Structures are given as structure tokens and as C-alpha cells.
Amino acid sequence: MTDLTQIEKRDLLYKGKAKEMFTTNDPDIMWVHYMDQVTAFNGKKKVQMAGKGQTNCEISALIFTDLAKHGIENHFIKQLDANNQLVKRVKIIPLETVVRNFASGSFEKRFAVKHLLKFDKPITEFYYKSDELDDPFINDFEVEALKIATEDQMNQIRAIALMVNNRLKEIFDKMAIDLVDFKVEIGIDRDGKLILADEISPDSCRLVDRKTKKSLDKDVFRKGLGELVPVYKELLGRLEKVEGVN
Amino acid sequence: MTDLTQIEKRDLLYKGKAKEMFTTNDPDIMWVHYMDQVTAFNGKKKVQMAGKGQTNCEISALIFTDLAKHGIENHFIKQLDANNQLVKRVKIIPLETVVRNFASGSFEKRFAVKHLLKFDKPITEFYYKSDELDDPFINDFEVEALKIATEDQMNQIRAIALMVNNRLKEIFDKMAIDLVDFKVEIGIDRDGKLILADEISPDSCRLVDRKTKKSLDKDVFRKGLGELVPVYKELLGRLEKVEGVN
Ligand SMILES: Nc1ncnc2c1ncn2[C@@H]1O[C@H](COP(=O)(O)OP(=O)(O)O)[C@@H](O)[C@H]1O
Ligand SMILES: Nc1ncnc2c1ncn2[C@@H]1O[C@H](COP(=O)(O)OP(=O)(O)O)[C@@H](O)[C@H]1O
Ligand SMILES: [Mg+2]
Ligand SMILES: [Mg+2]
């Protein structure tokens, strides 16, 4: 691996809805720039917001560092400055893996169940990551038929997602927050190993304060409940106080 | 079991979109009346059609009889007359199990794949049978969480559905018809055994004539491609000519 102080940003490889991904002078390292932008409903709602990129970048860095300490291998390498970090380049498997501990969002709507119904065991779901198709819900047999992933890979992905869930629940428990659900993306690194990639932030989690019952996540933006960045900053502040995470 | 000649129709237990289910003087036997009605899009499109009930009733009777001969236990007991049959009463597991050999319908739309793309292996899918919820697509973890069925039951259901697929493919092969996809419902009989129930008919299958490429199923109605009953009658005629089925 290149000496990390020598890493230089090269070409913009992909500009997504929340991040820009740049190549670097090391083919195995990507430069991630967290943008001051928030989107919802597959990009149909989009707003620029000062401070949003930085907060997510820092939250994701803290969480990925903690997960690595707890044995969950991931792409995070180094925080560069407020909005930028270095990560291992992976081949993303185009599945958004959702873990649900309580009913909310599309689940609640699809099955008309009580908001925040608690599940006996976490539920996992796959969505096929495709902006054009609107990230359709997909089952294992369809994933295989469309050659998106193998059965073995799906089982590995679920195992990683559930390990992440266990550790995240521990962290948020210490913050008196319920982890309602979250989404992860898994990639294949250059050794062929499946590792956690992308980000874990209030953009990709649903978090509810146990005392106030308030959302501390992108639902604030989706539902127009108020200013988003102060909420994300509050979350970051609380996260930084958790022993072991900081 | 009551002497079948002594069975009497009692109360209407359930009037569905295609059939009326009556109790009888035997608590384990139901009287099914196939109505002259066809619906699509969860009942939003609905038309009365003379001869439709009879054709479906006869097709389903032929297929269930054949499946039983091929070791696939099912609810069918006896054809009474054109529109009526006796079946074993079961507790329906509220899952519509879909088997797909080629892409069509909601699959084709959801994943924007080529019409009639052939899959290497059949795909199975579960839909939660609920008119109010519009039969939402559901995965195994959700089925378990909502206590709709156990993991073991889901595996048994899939095994039955795939056995049905194998035999149906053999039958339709002899008729020069591609079995694109179909839906089954499975119920629990009074011994606690999972058996095939409901109906298998052109209402619940997608069938494409290999030579003419024409649909021989409810897609004729869904897409307004012409008169439905003559198509169903043609199918019945061809089915009756298959050796072993008649
Ligand atoms: N380590 C990685 N290597 C390569 N690609 C990654 C890595 N981590 C995340 N990605 C991908 O980079 C993009 C991140 O930008 P984002 O704004 O989240 O995109 P999107 O709008 O597609 O969600 C996503 O497509 C994500 O799958
Ligand atoms: N053997 C059986 N015992 C009890 N219920 C059955 C059996 N076979 C089918 N059913 C149920 O009877 C109803 C059949 O009527 P149908 O018109 O197909 O209803 P729907 O509009 O709900 O599809 C369905 O709800 C089906 O699940
Ligand atoms: Mg993203
Ligand atoms: Mg029905």
C-alpha cells in the first residue's frame, strides 16, 4: 500500500446522491468526498445543506473505526479532513441490505403494521441497487437468477449485516437511542473478500430517541420535520461521548 | 369421510373473486362453485363471462387429478357438475407462491428485463395474500416476523410448488405450450399436512403457445387481447388430448 501521506486525488469516478468517489494514485484506494447535499425518494427531493457532508463523514468514520475494532472488516482507511476520507476500493455488490429491528418506512406501509412494532429477531431485506429501477425489493432466487450475487455471497452479506446490527445496537443503546433500521452496502476487495463499504450515517439509519421519541436521522428531511444538520450534529455529539467509540 | 353421494351444500363461507366456497355436512369437505366472473389488478377490472367458471373448474379438476397421480397431494376430491367440485377443507397459508420459468408480468416490469427471458432455474416468490394490502411481495424473514409461516413450512411450500412446476411443464410441453409462470396456494389439512389447494387454471398461470406466441391465459383479459372464454376452451380442449391427463 502507498504511504498514506503520499495519496493524491485523481479523477472523479462517480458522483452519487451524497458522495463523490475519486480515484487516487493507488488503484486500491478511493478518495470519498461527502457532499453538502441531501436527497430522498430516490433523488426526487434534493437540497443543499452546509455542514451535512462533514457531519456524515465524521459519523461514518467513527462507526467504521469502531466496527473494525469489533472485528467487522470494512473499507475505511483514514479521515483526511472534515469532508474527505480514504477508503479501500471494492467492487460493490449492487444490493442494499436492510436490517430492521422495528417496523417503519416501507415495511410499515407495505404490511400496514403498527409504527415501531418490535420484531422478535431482526429482519433482513435485499433491494437491487438501481436508480433507474427505483431500487426494487428482491428475493434470493431473483438475485441468483439475475446473477447479482451467489447464494453463498448472500449468506455472507446477511451475516455481516447482522454483526453490524449487533454492534450498532450496543452503541446506540449507550446513547438511549433505538436503532429502528439501517442499510449497508457490501463490496468485494482485491483479495476477493466481502467487506462492509459505503457509509453508515443518519442518512442510512433510522434512529429514535428513547426519551423524546424524536427521529435523529434522514426522516427529519423526508418528512419535513425541521432542520436536518442540527439533528445530525446532536447525534455526532452524543456518539463522540460513547466510551470506546471516540 | 361422509359417503360422497350424501354431501350437501350448506353455508357460503367465503365469496372470492373467482369462486364461492361453501361448507357441507362434512366439516372436512368444502363445496367450491366456480363463478362466471373474471377479475384482474386485484379486482379493479371485473367482468361477468358465461362459460368461464365451467372451463376453469374443468381445467383445475384435470390438473389436480393428474398431480395426485404424480404423487402431489392436493385438496381435490370430486367434480360434481360443470361449475362445482368438492375439495378437502384446509387452513390456507396466506401466501401466494409464484414459480417463474420465464420473465413476465411484475417481474419483467420490476427488473426491466427482456420479455420471456428464460431463467436457468425456476424462481420462487412469496406474496402475502391480502386484498387490502394488494398482495405485497414478501421475503422469508418478513414471513417469519409476521408469523405467516415458519421457515420449515416455507421450505415445504417451495418444494411442493417446484414439484408442481415439474409436472406442469411436462403436461404443457406435450401441448407445445411454454409454462411462463403460475401461482399456487398451500393449505394445512386436518392431519397438519401441507397440501396443494385452491386452483390451477389459466387464471393462475401464464401460458404461451410455442408456435403462435399467443397467450392462453388471463393475460388475454388483463391486456384486452380478445375474448377470454374461447381461449380457455381451446386450452381445455388441448389439455383433454394429453395422454394420461384425460
Ligand atoms: N469502497 C468503495 N469502493 C467503491 N465504490 C464504493 C465504495 N464505497 C461506496 N461505493 C459506492 O460509491 C457510491 C457512493 O456515493 P453515493 O452518493 O452514496 O451514491 P448513490 O447515490 O449511488 O447512493 C455508491 O455507488 C457506493 O455503492
Ligand atoms: N381447500 C380449501 N379450503 C379452504 N379454503 C380454500 C381451499 N382452497 C382454496 N381456498 C380459499 O378459498 C378462496 C377461493 O376463492 P377465490 O375466488 O379464489 O378467492 P380470492 O379472491 O381470495 O382469490 C381463496 O381465499 C382460497 O385461498
Ligand atoms: Mg448512497
Ligand atoms: Mg383466488
From TrEMBL, chains A, B:
InterPro entries: SAICAR_synt/ADE2_N (IPR028923), SAICAR_synt_PurC (IPR033934), SAICAR_synth (IPR001636), SAICAR_synthetase (IPR050089), SAICAR_synthetase_CS (IPR018236). Pfam families: SAICAR_synt. Keywords: ATP-binding, Ligase, Nucleotide-binding, Purine biosynthesis. Residues 12-237 form the SAICAR synthetase/ADE2 N-terminal domain. It catalyses: 5-amino-1-(5-phospho-D-ribosyl)imidazole-4-carboxylate + L-aspartate + ATP = (2S)-2-[5-amino-1-(5-phospho-beta-D-ribosyl)imidazole-4-carboxamido]succinate + ADP + phosphate + 2 H(+). PANTHER family: MULTIFUNCTIONAL PROTEIN ADE2, SI:DKEY-6E2.2. NCBIfam families: purC. It comes from Lentilactobacillus fungorum. This is Phosphoribosylaminoimidazole-succinocarboxamide synthase. Its EC number is 6.3.2.6. It comes from the Bacteria. It is an enzyme of class 6 (ligase). Belongs to the SAICAR synthetase family. Pathway: Purine metabolism; IMP biosynthesis via de novo pathway; 5-amino-1-(5-phospho-D-ribosyl)imidazole-4-carboxamide from 5-amino-1-(5-phospho-D-ribosyl)imidazole-4-carboxylate: step 1/2.
